[in-house]
Amino acid sequence: MPRATLTSQDPAHLDVDALVVAVARTDQGPRLLDPDALPQDVRTEVTAHAVALGITGDQDEVRRLPTAGRLAAKVLVLTGVGALDAVTPEALRRAAGAATRELAGVGSVAVALPAADVESLAAVAEGALLGAYSYTRYRPADAAAKAAPVATLQVVTPLVRDRAAKAALARAEVLAEAVHGVRDLVNTAPNDLFPAAFADLAKAAAKDAGSRSVKVTVLDEKALAAGGYGGLLGVGLGSVRGPRLVKVAYTPSKPAAKVALVGKGITFDSGGISIKPAAGMEAMKSDMAGAAAVLHTVLAAARLELPVAVTGWLCLAENMPSGTAQRPSDVLTIRGGKTVEVLNTDAEGRLVLADGLVAATEEKPDVVLDIATLTGAQMIALGNRVSAVMGTDAVRGEVTAAAEGSGELFWPMPLPADLRAGLKSKVADLANIGDRFGGMLTAGIFLQEFTGGTPWAHLDIAGPAFNEKSAHGYTPVGGTGVGVRTMLAFLEQRARAGR
Question: For a designed S-S bond to 489, which of 28, 147, 328, 406 qualifies (C-beta 3.0 to 4.6 A apart)?
Answer without folding.
Answer: 406
